[in-house]
Amino acid sequence: MSDAPGRPAQMLCILWPAFLMAGVLEMLVFAVVDPANLQWFGASPVELQPTTVYSVAFLLFWLVISIASGLTQFLANPEAH
């Protein structure tokens, strides 16, 4: 029997730390950036509620960090590919 963790455990090892770091990054970014003052590439202002901006930014941060963590997991396990 293999000691390697199952797929759900591997996904949790990627998604949970990414979730925590997305929260940290969210706090760092929005300590400096005011969502009410955001503009689309310097043109028109972003007409979204601050809560929506926070939510979308968090999900984007989580996605990017999860992809980076998943790629690291994939490259660190040469037997899997």
Number of helices: 2
- Counting helices, strands and paired strands, the structural category is mainly alpha
Global mean pLDDT: 88
Number of strands: 0
How widely separated are the two ends?
A: 19 Å
The share of residues in extended strands comes to under 5%
Shape: elongated
* Integer-rounded radius of gyration: 17 Å
**Poorly predicted parts:** none
SSE pattern: HH
- Helix share of residues? 55-70%
Question: How is the secondary structure organized here?
Answer:
Blueprint: H1 7-32, H2 50-76
Helix pairs in contact: 1-2
Describe the protein:
This protein has helices at 7-32, 50-76. With 81 residues, the protein is mainly alpha-helical. The protein has a domain at 36-76. It is elongated and about 50 Å long.
Looking at this protein, list some descriptive labels.
81 residues; mainly alpha; 65% helix; elongated
Offer a quick outline of the entry:
The protein is built from 2 helices and no strands.
